Amino acid sequence: MIEAGFNSVSQFLSELFTSLVSLLKVAIRGRHATRLPARQLPVCSVLGNGPSLNESLSEQFDFIRQTEIVCVNNFAHADIFPRLRPQNYVISDPNYFLFTEQTTDREDIRRTLSVFVESVDWAMTLYVPYFAKGSYVLSKIEQGNPLIKVVYFNYTVVHGFRWLIYWLYAKGLGMPRAQTVIIAALALMINRKFETIYLFGADTSWHEQIRLNDQNQLLIKQIHFYDKPKDVTHQPVYSDAQRQRTFSMASQFLSLHKVFHGYEVLRDYADHRGVRIVNASAKSYIDAFERESIGQSVNQ
Protein backbone atom coordinates (compact mmCIF):
# COMPACT_ATOMS: atom_id res chain seq x y z
CA MET A 1 0.00 0.00 0.00
CA ILE A 2 2.77 2.44 0.96
CA GLU A 3 4.76 1.48 -2.17
CA ALA A 4 1.69 2.09 -4.35
CA GLY A 5 1.24 5.49 -2.74
CA PHE A 6 4.86 6.44 -3.43
CA ASN A 7 4.52 5.31 -7.04
CA SER A 8 1.34 7.36 -7.47
CA VAL A 9 2.96 10.50 -6.06
CA SER A 10 6.08 9.91 -8.16
CA GLN A 11 4.00 9.56 -11.34
CA PHE A 12 2.02 12.73 -10.56
CA LEU A 13 5.20 14.73 -9.94
CA SER A 14 6.76 13.38 -13.13
CA GLU A 15 3.71 14.32 -15.20
CA LEU A 16 3.56 17.72 -13.52
CA PHE A 17 7.19 18.41 -14.38
CA THR A 18 6.87 17.25 -18.02
CA SER A 19 3.65 19.25 -18.36
CA LEU A 20 5.39 22.42 -17.18
CA VAL A 21 8.28 21.81 -19.58
CA SER A 22 5.82 21.26 -22.43
CA LEU A 23 3.98 24.49 -21.61
CA LEU A 24 7.29 26.35 -21.65
CA LYS A 25 8.11 24.92 -25.09
CA VAL A 26 4.66 25.85 -26.35
CA ALA A 27 5.01 29.38 -24.97
CA ILE A 28 8.16 29.80 -27.04
CA ARG A 29 6.73 28.28 -30.24
CA GLY A 30 3.02 28.99 -29.78
CA ARG A 31 2.91 31.64 -32.49
CA HIS A 32 3.42 28.81 -34.96
CA ALA A 33 0.15 26.97 -34.29
CA THR A 34 -0.82 24.54 -37.05
CA ARG A 35 -3.69 25.62 -39.32
CA LEU A 36 -5.06 22.60 -41.16
CA PRO A 37 -7.41 22.57 -44.17
CA ALA A 38 -10.84 21.01 -43.87
CA ARG A 39 -11.13 17.41 -45.01
CA GLN A 40 -12.48 16.81 -48.52
CA LEU A 41 -13.91 13.35 -47.83
CA PRO A 42 -14.93 11.50 -44.63
CA VAL A 43 -12.32 8.75 -45.17
CA CYS A 44 -8.61 8.97 -45.93
CA SER A 45 -5.82 6.52 -46.73
CA VAL A 46 -2.33 7.10 -45.36
CA LEU A 47 0.21 5.31 -47.55
CA GLY A 48 3.52 4.33 -46.01
CA ASN A 49 6.44 3.34 -48.20
CA GLY A 50 6.86 -0.22 -46.89
CA PRO A 51 7.33 -3.09 -49.38
CA SER A 52 3.85 -4.46 -48.65
CA LEU A 53 2.30 -1.40 -50.29
CA ASN A 54 2.83 -3.06 -53.68
CA GLU A 55 0.36 -5.76 -52.70
CA SER A 56 -2.14 -3.23 -51.29
CA LEU A 57 -1.96 -1.07 -54.40
CA SER A 58 -2.48 -4.12 -56.60
CA GLU A 59 -5.51 -5.37 -54.68
CA GLN A 60 -7.00 -2.20 -53.19
CA PHE A 61 -6.23 0.50 -55.77
CA ASP A 62 -9.89 1.29 -56.51
CA PHE A 63 -10.70 1.48 -52.81
CA ILE A 64 -7.78 3.81 -52.09
CA ARG A 65 -8.69 6.07 -55.02
CA GLN A 66 -12.15 6.63 -53.47
CA THR A 67 -10.58 8.05 -50.31
CA GLU A 68 -8.58 11.20 -49.62
CA ILE A 69 -4.98 10.05 -50.12
CA VAL A 70 -1.94 10.94 -48.03
CA CYS A 71 1.57 10.08 -49.26
CA VAL A 72 4.88 10.58 -47.45
CA ASN A 73 8.57 11.37 -48.00
CA ASN A 74 9.86 9.79 -51.26
CA PHE A 75 6.57 8.31 -52.48
CA ALA A 76 6.83 10.58 -55.54
CA HIS A 77 9.53 8.25 -56.89
CA ALA A 78 6.91 5.58 -57.60
CA ASP A 79 5.51 5.18 -61.11
CA ILE A 80 2.02 4.98 -59.61
CA PHE A 81 2.26 8.45 -58.04
CA PRO A 82 0.69 10.38 -60.99
CA ARG A 83 -2.07 7.76 -61.26
CA LEU A 84 -3.01 8.16 -57.59
CA ARG A 85 -2.88 11.98 -57.74
CA PRO A 86 -2.82 12.28 -53.92
CA GLN A 87 -4.47 15.30 -52.36
CA ASN A 88 -1.99 15.33 -49.47
CA TYR A 89 1.74 14.77 -49.00
CA VAL A 90 3.71 14.84 -45.73
CA ILE A 91 7.48 15.29 -45.50
CA SER A 92 9.17 15.30 -42.10
CA ASP A 93 12.70 14.11 -42.96
CA PRO A 94 14.99 16.96 -41.77
CA ASN A 95 17.44 16.16 -44.56
CA TYR A 96 14.97 17.65 -47.04
CA PHE A 97 15.27 21.02 -45.35
CA LEU A 98 19.07 20.94 -45.09
CA PHE A 99 19.34 20.17 -48.81
CA THR A 100 20.77 22.88 -51.07
CA GLU A 101 21.61 23.22 -54.74
CA GLN A 102 25.18 22.17 -53.89
CA THR A 103 24.20 18.95 -52.08
CA THR A 104 25.56 15.97 -54.00
CA ASP A 105 24.76 12.92 -51.86
CA ARG A 106 20.94 13.08 -51.81
CA GLU A 107 19.80 12.35 -55.34
CA ASP A 108 16.53 11.04 -53.88
CA ILE A 109 15.63 14.52 -52.59
CA ARG A 110 16.58 16.11 -55.89
CA ARG A 111 14.33 13.62 -57.66
CA THR A 112 11.35 14.33 -55.40
CA LEU A 113 11.81 18.06 -55.92
CA SER A 114 11.89 17.58 -59.67
CA VAL A 115 8.64 15.58 -59.63
CA PHE A 116 6.90 18.19 -57.49
CA VAL A 117 7.92 21.11 -59.69
CA GLU A 118 7.64 19.49 -63.11
CA SER A 119 5.04 16.72 -62.88
CA VAL A 120 2.39 17.52 -60.26
CA ASP A 121 -0.46 18.97 -62.34
CA TRP A 122 -3.21 18.62 -59.72
CA ALA A 123 -4.02 20.46 -56.50
CA MET A 124 -1.99 19.00 -53.64
CA THR A 125 -1.34 20.10 -50.06
CA LEU A 126 2.21 19.58 -48.80
CA TYR A 127 2.63 19.37 -45.00
CA VAL A 128 6.07 20.15 -43.56
CA PRO A 129 7.33 21.18 -40.10
CA TYR A 130 7.57 24.89 -39.47
CA PHE A 131 11.37 24.80 -39.26
CA ALA A 132 11.37 23.96 -42.99
CA LYS A 133 10.16 27.47 -43.84
CA GLY A 134 12.68 29.29 -46.01
CA SER A 135 14.59 26.13 -46.95
CA TYR A 136 15.89 25.64 -50.48
CA VAL A 137 13.46 22.79 -51.26
CA LEU A 138 10.39 24.65 -50.03
CA SER A 139 11.40 27.84 -51.85
CA LYS A 140 11.74 25.92 -55.11
CA ILE A 141 8.37 24.22 -54.67
CA GLU A 142 6.51 27.39 -53.71
CA GLN A 143 8.05 29.31 -56.62
CA GLY A 144 7.85 26.48 -59.14
CA ASN A 145 4.37 25.01 -58.74
CA PRO A 146 1.35 27.10 -57.67
CA LEU A 147 -0.81 23.94 -57.55
CA ILE A 148 1.03 22.80 -54.43
CA LYS A 149 -0.14 24.53 -51.27
CA VAL A 150 2.32 24.32 -48.38
CA VAL A 151 0.98 23.91 -44.84
CA TYR A 152 3.48 24.29 -42.01
CA PHE A 153 2.79 22.26 -38.88
CA ASN A 154 4.10 22.92 -35.38
CA TYR A 155 6.33 20.02 -34.46
CA THR A 156 6.64 20.72 -30.75
CA VAL A 157 6.80 17.41 -28.88
CA VAL A 158 4.75 17.63 -25.69
CA HIS A 159 4.35 15.27 -22.73
CA GLY A 160 2.49 15.41 -19.45
CA PHE A 161 -1.07 15.13 -18.20
CA ARG A 162 -3.20 13.45 -20.84
CA TRP A 163 -5.95 16.09 -20.73
CA LEU A 164 -3.32 18.79 -21.32
CA ILE A 165 -1.45 17.17 -24.19
CA TYR A 166 -4.72 16.29 -25.96
CA TRP A 167 -5.74 19.94 -25.75
CA LEU A 168 -2.34 21.02 -27.11
CA TYR A 169 -2.59 18.46 -29.94
CA ALA A 170 -6.07 19.64 -30.90
CA LYS A 171 -5.04 23.31 -30.90
CA GLY A 172 -2.07 22.61 -33.19
CA LEU A 173 0.37 23.68 -30.48
CA GLY A 174 2.01 20.32 -29.96
CA MET A 175 2.37 16.80 -31.36
CA PRO A 176 3.39 13.32 -30.26
CA ARG A 177 7.00 12.37 -30.93
CA ALA A 178 7.07 11.59 -34.66
CA GLN A 179 9.76 8.91 -34.77
CA THR A 180 8.48 8.12 -38.28
CA VAL A 181 6.74 10.28 -40.87
CA ILE A 182 3.67 8.02 -40.59
CA ILE A 183 3.16 9.17 -36.99
CA ALA A 184 3.24 12.80 -38.13
CA ALA A 185 0.82 12.06 -40.97
CA LEU A 186 -1.64 10.24 -38.70
CA ALA A 187 -1.53 13.02 -36.09
CA LEU A 188 -2.33 15.61 -38.76
CA MET A 189 -5.18 13.57 -40.24
CA ILE A 190 -6.71 12.92 -36.81
CA ASN A 191 -6.84 16.68 -36.31
CA ARG A 192 -8.53 17.08 -39.70
CA LYS A 193 -11.33 14.99 -38.15
CA PHE A 194 -11.66 12.17 -40.65
CA GLU A 195 -14.21 9.57 -39.61
CA THR A 196 -11.90 6.70 -40.59
CA ILE A 197 -8.20 6.60 -41.46
CA TYR A 198 -6.91 3.55 -43.33
CA LEU A 199 -3.21 2.80 -43.06
CA PHE A 200 -1.40 0.94 -45.85
CA GLY A 201 2.25 0.08 -46.40
CA ALA A 202 3.18 0.42 -42.71
CA ASP A 203 5.31 -2.72 -42.51
CA THR A 204 7.45 -1.39 -39.61
CA SER A 205 9.68 -4.42 -40.11
CA TRP A 206 13.13 -2.80 -40.02
CA HIS A 207 14.26 -5.22 -37.31
CA GLU A 208 14.12 -8.01 -39.89
CA GLN A 209 16.84 -6.24 -41.87
CA ILE A 210 19.29 -5.44 -39.04
CA ARG A 211 22.75 -6.95 -39.34
CA LEU A 212 26.04 -6.60 -37.45
CA ASN A 213 29.32 -6.91 -39.37
CA ASP A 214 32.67 -8.13 -38.10
CA GLN A 215 33.58 -4.60 -37.01
CA ASN A 216 30.46 -4.39 -34.79
CA GLN A 217 28.91 -1.88 -37.17
CA LEU A 218 25.12 -1.86 -37.30
CA LEU A 219 23.80 -2.32 -40.84
CA ILE A 220 20.23 -2.00 -42.12
CA LYS A 221 18.73 -2.74 -45.52
CA GLN A 222 15.95 -0.21 -46.00
CA ILE A 223 13.55 -1.44 -48.67
CA HIS A 224 10.69 0.68 -50.00
CA PHE A 225 7.84 -0.43 -52.21
CA TYR A 226 9.25 1.55 -55.16
CA ASP A 227 12.75 0.02 -54.88
CA LYS A 228 14.17 -2.80 -56.95
CA PRO A 229 15.20 -5.29 -54.24
CA LYS A 230 18.40 -6.31 -56.07
CA ASP A 231 19.59 -2.69 -55.90
CA VAL A 232 19.17 -2.40 -52.11
CA THR A 233 21.97 -3.59 -49.83
CA HIS A 234 22.76 -3.45 -46.11
CA GLN A 235 24.33 -0.12 -45.25
CA PRO A 236 25.90 1.25 -42.04
CA VAL A 237 23.62 3.53 -40.00
CA TYR A 238 25.92 6.25 -38.72
CA SER A 239 25.30 8.19 -35.53
CA ASP A 240 27.71 11.04 -36.27
CA ALA A 241 28.16 13.47 -39.15
CA GLN A 242 31.74 12.27 -39.71
CA ARG A 243 30.47 8.71 -40.29
CA GLN A 244 32.94 7.23 -37.85
CA ARG A 245 30.50 5.38 -35.59
CA THR A 246 27.23 3.58 -36.18
CA PHE A 247 24.29 3.45 -33.78
CA SER A 248 24.47 0.75 -31.13
CA MET A 249 22.03 -2.15 -31.09
CA ALA A 250 20.56 -0.78 -27.86
CA SER A 251 19.89 2.64 -29.38
CA GLN A 252 18.38 1.06 -32.50
CA PHE A 253 15.87 -0.97 -30.51
CA LEU A 254 15.12 2.02 -28.29
CA SER A 255 14.26 3.90 -31.47
CA LEU A 256 11.92 1.07 -32.48
CA HIS A 257 10.30 1.22 -29.04
CA LYS A 258 9.59 4.93 -29.61
CA VAL A 259 7.96 4.11 -32.95
CA PHE A 260 5.57 1.53 -31.52
CA HIS A 261 4.84 3.61 -28.43
CA GLY A 262 4.03 6.55 -30.72
CA TYR A 263 1.35 4.46 -32.42
CA GLU A 264 -0.17 3.63 -29.04
CA VAL A 265 -0.28 7.34 -28.16
CA LEU A 266 -2.02 8.05 -31.48
CA ARG A 267 -4.54 5.24 -30.94
CA ASP A 268 -5.62 6.73 -27.62
CA TYR A 269 -5.75 10.26 -29.05
CA ALA A 270 -7.79 9.07 -32.05
CA ASP A 271 -10.26 7.39 -29.67
CA HIS A 272 -10.48 10.68 -27.76
CA ARG A 273 -11.30 12.56 -30.98
CA GLY A 274 -13.74 9.93 -32.23
CA VAL A 275 -11.53 8.96 -35.18
CA ARG A 276 -11.18 5.31 -36.21
CA ILE A 277 -7.76 4.12 -37.42
CA VAL A 278 -7.60 0.84 -39.32
CA ASN A 279 -4.28 -0.80 -40.13
CA ALA A 280 -5.00 -2.27 -43.57
CA SER A 281 -1.35 -2.97 -44.44
CA ALA A 282 -0.78 -6.31 -46.16
CA LYS A 283 2.08 -6.84 -43.70
CA SER A 284 2.65 -4.95 -40.47
CA TYR A 285 4.09 -5.33 -37.00
CA ILE A 286 1.93 -2.49 -35.64
CA ASP A 287 -0.44 -3.88 -33.01
CA ALA A 288 -1.90 -0.59 -31.77
CA PHE A 289 -4.66 -0.32 -34.41
CA GLU A 290 -7.44 -2.68 -35.36
CA ARG A 291 -7.08 -4.81 -38.50
CA GLU A 292 -9.85 -5.23 -41.04
CA SER A 293 -10.50 -6.70 -44.48
CA ILE A 294 -11.07 -3.86 -46.91
CA GLY A 295 -14.09 -3.83 -49.21
CA GLN A 296 -14.11 -2.43 -52.70
CA SER A 297 -16.07 0.71 -51.88
CA VAL A 298 -15.90 3.19 -49.04
CA ASN A 299 -19.67 3.36 -49.16
CA GLN A 300 -20.24 -0.35 -48.46
How is this structure best described in words?
This protein has helices at residues 2-29, 53-65, 81-84, 95-98, 107-118, 136-144, 162-170, 181-191, 249-273; strands at 43-47, 68-72, 88-90, 124-129, 148-153, 196-200, 210-212, 218-220, 235-236, 276-279, 290-291. The protein is of the alpha/beta class and 300 residues long. The chain is globular and about 65 Å long. Mean pLDDT is 90; it is low at 296-300.
Compile the SSE list and pairings.
Elements: H1 2-29, E1 43-47, H2 53-65, E2 68-72, H3 81-84, E3 88-90, H4 95-98, H5 107-118, E4 124-129, H6 136-144, E5 148-153, H7 162-170, H8 181-191, E6 196-200, E7 210-212, E8 218-220, E9 235-236, H9 249-273, E10 276-279, E11 290-291
Parallel strand pairs: 1-2, 1-6, 2-3, 3-4, 4-5, 6-10, 10-11
Antiparallel strand pairs: 7-8, 8-9
Helix pairs in contact: 5-6, 8-9
Organism: Spirosoma arboris
Protein name: DUF115 domain-containing protein
Question: In CATH, what is the class?
Answer: Alpha Beta
Give, in spatial order, the strands making up the sheet with the most strands. 5-4-3-2-1-6-10-11
Task: Report the C-alpha radius of gyration, rounded.
Answer: 20 Å
Number of separate structural domains: 1
Strand content: 5-15%
Q: Could you please say which CATH topology applies here? A: sialyltransferase cstii, chain A
Number of strands: 11
CATH architectural type: Alpha-Beta Complex
**Helix and strand pattern:** HEHEHEHHEHEHHEEEEHEE
Average of per-residue pLDDT values: 90
Determine the fraction of residues in helical runs and give it as a percent range.
25-40%
Q: Based on the structure, what is the oligomeric state of the protein chains?
A: single chain
Overall spatial form: globular
Q: Give the low-confidence spans.
A: 296-300
Class from secondary-structure proportions: alpha/beta
Q: DSSP helix count?
A: 9
Distance N to C terminus:
53 Å
